[in-house]
Amino acid sequence: MIKLFSLKQQKKDGEASPRSGNPKKASAAQLRITKDINELNLPKTCTTEFPDPDDLLTFKLIICPDEGFYRTGRFIFSFKVGPNYPHEPPKVKCETQVYHPNIDQQGNVCLNILREDWKPVLTINSIVYGLQYLFLEPNPEDPLNKEAAEVLTNNRRVFEQNVQKAIRGGYVGGIYFERCLK
Amino acid sequence: MSETVESSQKRWGHLRKVLERPGPFCHPEFEPSSEILDFIMTSCKILIIGAGGLGCELLKDLALMGFKQIHVIDMDTIDLSNLNRQFLFRHKDIGSAKAEVAAEFINKRVAGCYVTPHFCKIQDYDEEFYRQFHIVVCGLDSIVARRWINGMLVAMLQYENGVLDQSSVIPMVDGGTEGFKGNARVILPGMSACVECTLDLYPPQVTYPLCTIANTPRLPEHCIEYVKVITWPKENPFNTALDGDDPQHIGWIYEKSMERALHFNIPGVTYRLVQGVVKNIIPAVASTNAIIAGICATEVFKIATSCCVPMNNYMVFNDVDGIYSYTYEAEKKENCLVCSQIPQELPIKDPSLMKLKEIISLLCESVIYQMKSPGITTTIGGKNKTLYISAIKSIEEKTKDNLNKTLTELGLKDGSEIMVADVTSPTTLVIKLKFMNNDVEMN
Ligand SMILES: [Zn+2]
């Protein structure tokens, strides 16, 4: 352990400040998201859209699943990365209305790593894979849309038909879904 | 001279026993001397960040320990609910600035101590302000603020030929409490684990699985969280974002939460709990604050005087069930985004000729970097700017024109920093541009 202050160098006051007037430094969140974005390794079913290339904290993810119940649809998610990233997860919403047990009408997504199981070692890539998995394996155990979950549990054929109907645009269970065909 | 007289007063006799005599537990390089007490009393400048529960304790402890040049910074004003533990505040102070009232109280109460208040955000000050302090001690409840000051202290480090100049190190002592639990740590920026190295250690905000709060609520908190996360955005009752300090908003959440709790037969939703969940308040225990602040103040004293080896470097404390404490060495992360960075300089011969794509080839071809596909951003006038990222199609399309622009055209200046991310490096590198042809023209 070093001895930090020798009593001789005790005057810090009035010391010339050669680095003052420096432009604002990039925050740790900014450094980290730059890394995450530069290393995004998207599955071939996913693309991203950055409306403002200078703002790496706000973007959209578009998923077009190539298998499973949702293979004919195109689903858009909005990502908002906050100043406390990666201590806190980004806020992710589904902007496309979708008939899905784990996504509700307001676009809330029930994915564990977006809330209770988020850890700073996880990346944007982890979330992309998590979301993609939701479309391959909708999980009726943890429903946000209870009706959809019940149908999935009781009758997979009806569920598949409902999903297709919703993707083509139309009413399922009294709720209108906008068309989101690929 | 009056200080020399003062430090010889009887009032400081106990400190003189520690500082003017050697002992078996002293720091190996400790040299007992009467100058040390003078240093504390005349030169040593301490910054306390936060004038809340921990901050009040820290101010009192440090002032009574003999530190005389103390600054305190806090952006908050005093609320009725603070008065049970933030003992420098009285009922008449409600609505006033915490930093100002706390400073005034100490200045009146502790003879010879001079506390300077700053009623603002830590982000309002720059390097010049923070450089004046010998030690920074934090009593914060915000992780964003901790990360910010940590980043600032690391950014102020000076290196010579890649070797840290120890005189640029400003130690940070950080305390935190949560109910009956607390922690205290000593950070020597650039030398020991920093806040960012140990980001995993900070408890995440309490969150409940979305599906639980939506379908199978069991706790009153589940009902409140549901209204906060689902019902509020859906109904948007006041056409504005939820404000935890607005009684109308809290009242609305309370009502809706009660309805939901009734529906699921869950007891325990109260107005206070609603406030707590919405504002994410963890009940504060005065004695935990006192203990953690006492430990932090002791570490400040050890560092300032070198009379004893400081804690190495992270202590957890818990008195939920008996009293437990444990101290261990949190390790510096080799690839820490913040403190593993030794600032690197990239000499640029002529910024009006050098193009961005040449910088990229340099980063890929140079023996030191050997990068594969660097993504580069910078900050210009405090704003982030993406110079080039090839990995993302939509960004690549919008930034590829930059490749043929010169550094001058891109707005980069001598001393500008570029942030470079690449798979070959575990962190985003910060590289400072050094323009070679500028020295003469500038002066
Ligand atoms: Zn670090």
UniProtKB/TrEMBL annotation, chain A:
Coiled-coil region: none
InterPro entries: Ub_conjugating_enzyme, UBC, UBQ-conjugating_AS, UBQ-conjugating_enzyme/RWD
Domain UBC core: 28-172
Active site location: C110 (glycyl thioester intermediate)
Signal peptide (from-to): none
UniProt-recorded Gene Ontology molecular function terms: ATP binding; NEDD8 conjugating enzyme activity
Entries under PROSITE patterns matching the protein: UBC_1, UBC_2
Pathway: Protein modification; protein neddylation
Reaction(s) catalysed by this chain's protein: [E1 NEDD8-activating enzyme]-S-[NEDD8 protein]-yl-L-cysteine + [E2 NEDD8-conjugating enzyme]-L-cysteine = [E1 NEDD8-activating enzyme]-L-cysteine + [E2 NEDD8-conjugating enzyme]-S-[NEDD8-protein]-yl-L-cysteine
Pfam family name, one: UQ_con
Source organism superkingdom: Eukaryota
Keyword Cytoplasm: no
Known EC number: 2.3.2.34
Presence of the UniProt keyword Transmembrane in the record: no
Family: Belongs to the ubiquitin-conjugating enzyme family.
UniProt-recorded name of the protein: E2 NEDD8-conjugating enzyme
UniProtKB/TrEMBL annotation, chain B:
One Gene Ontology molecular-function label: NEDD8 activating enzyme activity
Ranges where the E2 binding domain occurs: 348-436
Cellular component GO terms held in the UniProt record: cytoplasm; nucleus
Enzymatic reactions: ATP + [NEDD8 protein] + [E1 NEDD8-activating enzyme]-L-cysteine = AMP + diphosphate + [E1 NEDD8-activating enzyme]-S-[NEDD8 protein]-yl-L-cysteine
UniProt-annotated catalytic positions: C211
Pfam family, one: ThiF
Keyword tags: ATP-binding, Ligase, Nucleotide-binding, Ubl conjugation pathway
Pathway(s) of this molecule: Protein modification; protein neddylation
Cross-referenced SUPFAM superfamilies: Activating enzymes of the ubiquitin-like proteins (SSF69572)
InterPro entries according to UniProt: E2-binding (IPR014929), ThiF/MoeB/HesA (IPR045886), ThiF_NAD_FAD-bd (IPR000594), Ub_act_enz_dom_a_sf (IPR023318), Uba3_N (IPR030468), Ubiquitin-activating_enz (IPR035985), UBQ-activ_enz_E1_Cys_AS (IPR033127)
EC number: 6.2.1.64
SMART domains in the cross-refs: E2_bind
Family per similarity comment: Belongs to the ubiquitin-activating E1 family. UBA3 subfamily.
PANTHER family: NEDD8-ACTIVATING ENZYME E1 CATALYTIC SUBUNIT, UBIQUITIN-ACTIVATING ENZYME E1
Function as written in the Swiss-Prot or TrEMBL entry: Catalytic subunit of the dimeric E1 enzyme, which activates NEDD8.
Protein name: NEDD8-activating enzyme E1 catalytic subunit
Origin species: Brassicogethes aeneus
